[in-house]
Amino acid sequence: MSNRTFTMIKPDATSKGHSGAILDQIIKGGFSIKAMKWTRLTKEQAGEFYEVHKERPFYGELVDFMSSGPIVAAILEKDNAVADFRKLIGATNPAQAEEGTIRKRFAASVGENAVHGSDSDENAAIEGDFFFSKLERF
Ligand code: CMP
């Protein structure tokens, strides 16, 4: 079990001014920030990041949305980070997310769901490496 996960605050949430409130909930949830940047993905980069979903019907929509505006990318640390972070953000579809979770509070739909959280230790490492060099993580 690794103690790190990777997150992005997605363009819907950054454009509505929710970045600060989401980071506050993440920190109060016991996660510490090991790397963080405000950036914007090109279509090509979003397509590469979400390559595992290439065959899914929503892939084109997902790539367009994730490259539509700025995001916050971060590596987070906590015991049991991947599972605990997924609990904090709630179900992928905000309509099914528990009360008080980040997606319940800030997301509008399954496509525009405010935050990403890695689904495994292996993907957390791959996704963190996608955004951050060794010099950018602490
Ligand atoms: P995320 O955790 O970033 O990982 C894959 C993303 O695909 C997911 O969040 C959703 O935003 C998106 N997604 C999953 N299912 C659908 C769907 N049915 N329609 C549109 N987007 C989806």
List keywords for this structure.
7 helices; globular; binds adenosine-3',5'-cyclic-monophosphate; single chain; 138 residues; alpha+beta
Structure notes:
The chain has 138 residues and is of the alpha+beta class. The protein is 40% helix and 17% strand. It has a single domain (4-136), classed as Alpha-Beta Plaits. It has seven helices and four strands, in the order βααβααβααβα. It has a four-stranded antiparallel sheet. The chain starts with a strand and ends in a 7-residue tail after the last helix. The model has no long low-confidence stretch (mean pLDDT 97). Adenosine-3',5'-cyclic-monophosphate binds at residues 53, 58, 61-62, 92, 110-111, 113, 116.
Backbone shape: globular
> Which value, in Å, is the CA radius of gyration?
14 Å
Which percent range fits the helix content? Answer: 25-40%
Distinct small molecules: adenosine-3',5'-cyclic-monophosphate
CATH topology: Alpha-Beta Plaits
Going by CATH, the architecture would be 2-Layer Sandwich
Q: What count of helical segments does DSSP give?
A: 7
Q: Going across the biggest sheet, name each strand in turn.
A: 2-3-1-4
Low-confidence stretches: none
Measured distance between first and last alpha carbons: 19 Å
CATH class group:
Alpha Beta
Q: What fraction strand? A: 15-25%
Count of individual beta strands: 4
Structural class: alpha+beta
Number of separate domains: 1
**CATH homology group:** Nucleoside diphosphate kinase-like domain
- The ordered string of helix (H) and strand (E) elements is EHHEHHEHHEH
- How does the major sheet shape up? 4 strands, antiparallel
